[in-house]
Amino acid sequence: MLGKTLSDQIPEADTLGGRSDLDLSNPEIWNVMKSMDSYDYIIHTAAYTNMDMNENNPVRAHHLHCGVVKYLQLLSDKVIYVSAQGRDLGGVYFKSKLDGEKSTLSREGDLVIRTNIVGKGGLSQWALRELKLGRSINGYTNSIFNPVHVNQLSEFIKQNLELTGVVNVCSEDVISKYDFINKLADLYGYNKGLVFSKKLYETQDLTINEEDNITFKYSLPYEDVLYS
């Protein structure tokens, strides 16, 4: 989702999309990459976003989210690593993402971007598809996030290639998944009566923690998230 949008924003860049072009999940990836050209910048957007997949395959998750970073650094003057804002540091996804951040920041001048994106995929795509079909869905009232549209993030990256360190890219407000889905339903004219409020057993707090904000927080207009 992000890679496609970045390729539209920066058409002059090489886009290596998915396993057909460059399978970063392959443990022997360096045997392929060492013959590649070097780059000024490499933006690492690849990730396993299915949480169960991460939990069931921790070695593969760590390889993709962290292990390949050293190879990307060998092939570029600068790596831009797209990370996550999650606070569930007990999960494999967030642990491996944090390790990926540390690997990226081991080289001075590289950049880590922490964010939580939405777009034509993920939560938005699922919710709109189900509502269009007239199916009821659950929206979690205590799962809080501050979504950034992929168009916003892509534009931010294009305009801020020279940033270094850690940057949190977020929207101006936080919102529950329940309220977010209701806003989508309003926007597209779907029946909000199909959206039922539900609580997670544990609060999943995906908001910015100021202690993590090494450089600065870049806030984006919230309504643009929906209308982008």
Write the layout of secondary structure elements.
Layout: H1 2-9, H2 18-21, H3 29-33, E1 39-44, H4 51-56, H5 58-67, H6 69-74, E2 76-84, H7 92-105, E3 111-115, E4 117-118, H8 122-132, E5 137-140, E6 143-145, E7 148-149, H9 150-159, E8 165-171, E9 175-176, H10 177-188, E10 195-198, E11 204-205, E12 216-220, H11 222-227
Parallel strand pairs: 1-2, 2-3, 3-8, 4-7, 5-10, 6-11, 8-12
Antiparallel strand pairs: 6-9
Task: Describe the overall structure.
- The chain has 228 residues and is α/β, with parallel strands linked by helices.
- It has one domain (2-227): Rossmann fold (3-Layer(aba) Sandwich).
- Helix content is 40%, strand content 22%.
- The chain has eleven helices and twelve strands.
- The chain has helices spanning 2-9, 18-21, 29-33, 51-56, 58-67, 69-74, 92-105, 122-132, 150-159, 177-188, 222-227; strands at 39-44, 76-84, 111-115, 117-118, 137-140, 143-145, 148-149, 165-171, 175-176, 195-198, 204-205, 216-220.
- Strands 1-2-3-8-12 form a five-stranded parallel β-sheet. A three-stranded mixed β-sheet has the order 9-6-11.
- Helix 7 links the parallel strand 2 and strand 3.
